[in-house]
Amino acid sequence: MFNPRPEIEYADTIVIKEFQEKKLVEMLDYLSNSSRYYQTLFSKNQIDIKEIQSIEDLKKLPVTTKEDLATYNQDFVCVHQEKIIDYITTSGTVGNPVSLMMTDIDLERLAYNEAISFTVAGCKASDIIQLTTTIDKRFMAGIAYFLGAKKMGAGIIRVGAGMPELQWDSILRFKPTVLIAVPSFILKLIDYAKKNNIDLKKSTIKKVICIGEPIRNINFEFNTLGLKIREEWPIDLYSTYASTEMATAFTECEHGAGGHHHPELIIVEFLDENDQTVGDEEPGEVTITTLGVEGMPLLRYKTGDICHHYNDKCACGRTTMRLGPVIGRKKQMIKYKGTTIFPFSIHEVLNSIEEIESYLIEVSTNEIGTDDILIKLSTKKPVDSKFEKELKDHFRAKLRVAPSILILEKAVLQSIQMPESGRKPILFIDNRIEAIS
Ligand SMILES: [Zn+2]
Which of 139, 149, 264 minimizes the C-alpha distance to 209? Predict the structure, then answer.
């Protein structure tokens, strides 16, 4: 029988650690028997896996990068082709897409992962879940939601991406209670409802599981996007974070204080640029070791996502680690006047200023080889010189440093933000030498 609330999520942290270490030993044993990539890695680095018994011992192992996974892709596969069921590629937001293959066991693990993640967000077997994202195109997410809802015993409506009209037809026809959606798409649904006299307050939707975009800032308050949705449509918003490579989700509970870790599915480390563990207060790169994966397990895989993490017990009673919103990609990390900044924190500052209409962050390498930040922005009304000074003071208060500011006419800024092929305005341009090479 499927248990939607596994005991391990409420156990003492020491029990969780011991539980994970037992699974880690099994995983290393499996890799040394079945993974060509890790067999080579162990022998090249003269690693005796018997010496890896604890989470701390993981430090003795080299990390696996996205480049490793792309370059030696086939060597990561641990099973014969007959065992592979689902063929997937990563969405390739950074670099080329990478292939991943899942066995029946992996699909079962994925279903379990999503079912317990839905449970964290308060979903039940009696819910009807409407999926507003793609289920095909070699993506993993859609199939995960479908399998998870099925495992939980909930109903599911596979509408797919876009099509506000069909989304509303499904909402009115089948009366779903939960939407899985990219938060900015919710704004489109709200817009459609308003134009077509659909009463949002009377809809059956109770909550949205928000994917792909943050709805909160690092203090877990709703950000501008989250507030905008809630203002128009007073439904509950839950954030979830996942990636194809980890095949595991971190979903918020009703207290909205970070995505809950599932210790039976994944080991998480937070590393700095030199692959050293960061302090509990510091943001670090989410680095994962999958547990229970049969097709393509990963050991100390660096996701490129930078997050804060929280180890204190959650008000929901779960003792598992919680993950804050992704504050940036490692490649977007900016070293500015001795401070490390991610675009996320700059967005947060700019989004909070009422006068700003639109903006673009440009990062470049200056003549001494360090990073420079220039923010080009347009304002809703003409502003005087005091505005720039106040904005810089605001930056210093929030980020300790102030970037250069250039105020442009709305039309001028728009022409830079909107290249012919683009669908979304560009908010971040990386002109650094390293980024280009
Ligand atoms: Zn919680």
Answer: 149
Distance 312 CA to ligand 1 centre (A): 10
Q: Rounded distance, CA 250 to CA 114, Å?
A: 9
When comparing pLDDT for 85 and 214, which is higher? 85
Query: What is the reported pTM?
Result: 0.85
Tell me how far the alpha carbon of residue 270 lies from the centroid of ligand 1, in angstroms. 20
Output the CA torsion sign for 258, 259, 265, 268. Answer: negative
Give the relative orientation of helices 183-195 and 224-232 as an angle to the nearest 10 degrees. 30
Q: Where are the domains of the chain?
A: 1-329, 333-436
- What band does 239 get if pLDDT is binned at 50, 70 and 90? very high
CA of 4 to the centre of ligand 1 (A): 14
Going from the Cα of 320 to the center of ligand 1, the distance in angstroms, rounded, reads 8
Between the CA of 321 and the centroid of ligand 1 the distance, in Å, is 9
CA of 236 to the centre of ligand 1 (A): 15
Do the beta carbons of residue 22 and residue 291 sit within 8 Å?
A: no
Q: Does domain 1-329 have CATH number 3.40.50.150?
A: no
For residue 435, pLDDT over 60 is answered with: no
> Rounded to whole angstroms, how far apart are CA atoms 354 and 380?
9
Centre of ligand 1 to C-alpha 341, Å, is 28
Residues in CB range of 97: below 8 A, 6 or more apart: 89, 90, 91
**Half-sphere CA count of 376, side-chain side, radius 13 A:** 17
Give the Å distance between the CA of 212 and the centre of ligand 1.
20
Tens of pLDDT, residue by residue over 358-405, are: 999 999 988 877 889 999 999 999 998 899 999 999 999 888 889 999
Q: How far is the CA of 117 from the centre of ligand 1 (A)?
A: 11
Closest among 52, 50, 238 to 127, alpha carbons compared = 238
* CA–centroid distance, residue 349 to ligand 1 (Å): 27
Query: CB–CB of 84/105 below 8 Å?
Result: no
Fold classification of 333-436 (topology level): GMP Synthetase; Chain A, domain 3 (3.30.300)
Distance 193 CA to ligand 1 centre (A): 32
**Ligand 1 center to 43 CA (angstroms):** 42
Distance between Cα 238 and ligand 1 center (Å): 11
Neighbours of 347 (CB within 10 A): 20
Q: Cα separation of 129 and 340, whole Å?
A: 40
Give me ligand 1 centre to Cα 316, in Å: 4
Q: Which amino acid belongs to residue 341? A: I
Q: Give strand pairing partners of 54.
A: none
